[in-house]
Amino acid sequence: MSGPPDFDAYYRADPDPWDVGGSFYEQRKRGVVLAGLRRARYASAWDPACGTGHLTADLAARCDRVVASDASATAAALAAERCSGLPVAVGHRALPDPPDEDGFAPDLVLLSEVFYYLSDPVRAATVALVDRLAAPAAELVAVHWDGAPDDAWLSGRGAQTELVAQLVARGWTQRIHHDDEEFLLDTVTRGAA
Ligand SMILES: C[S@@+](CC[C@H](N)C(=O)[O-])C[C@H]1O[C@@H](n2cnc3c(N)ncnc32)[C@H](O)[C@@H]1O
């Protein structure tokens, strides 16, 4: 890999490049993510790579508000449209840039199919940002395809392992490891979450 893929070009060529809306893999993944959430409700969730916003919209049913963003302006616009009428704010922003809301302290963070697309320094900065922003009692859910995308820096397994280890090294606790046929899900919490 020499640089990040042009995600906006993917979305300009196809408004749903990973068939999030149609594939059973994605439908089932969303169901497993929601089933794995450890609390009935969250005050504020952060979904910093929301893509088309399908999972963002599902999360909104469990959260008072969701702050979502994506590195692709096209994806962010699609997610904003999908989530209109829901308590979701969608922006165009690339990790590791923080949300531009003062005092935002999410008690739920979702990293779905994005960590493996981040370069070494961006992954390190993203972990530091999560640790800095998250509420004292917070839960992070990471879910990635258990394969190695051609355009990614890491495999899904490598991404999950690194992310969990980095958060555990910062005092977080691993609560769930779900090793599915096609994807991996880990839940890591801090404090009383
Ligand atoms: C495979 S899609 C997953 C979308 C969504 N999380 C889901 O699970 O349906 C990967 C997404 O990550 C976004 N992305 C890649 N690098 C990013 C970055 N540095 N910051 C924010 N989003 C990024 C892409 O634009 C794309 O929408």
TrEMBL record:
Q: Where is the Methyltransferase domain?
A: 47-136
Q: Which UniProt keywords apply?
A: Methyltransferase, Transferase
Which is one Pfam family of this protein?
Methyltransf_25
- Which is one GO molecular function term here? methyltransferase activity
| SUPFAM superfamilies assigned to the protein according to its UniProt record, in alphabetical order | S-adenosyl-L-methionine-dependent methyltransferases (SSF53335)
Report if keyword DNA damage is assigned. no
Report the domain of life of the source organism. Answer: Bacteria
Report the record's Gene Ontology biological process terms: methylation
Provide the protein name.
Class I SAM-dependent methyltransferase
Organism of origin:
Microlunatus spumicola
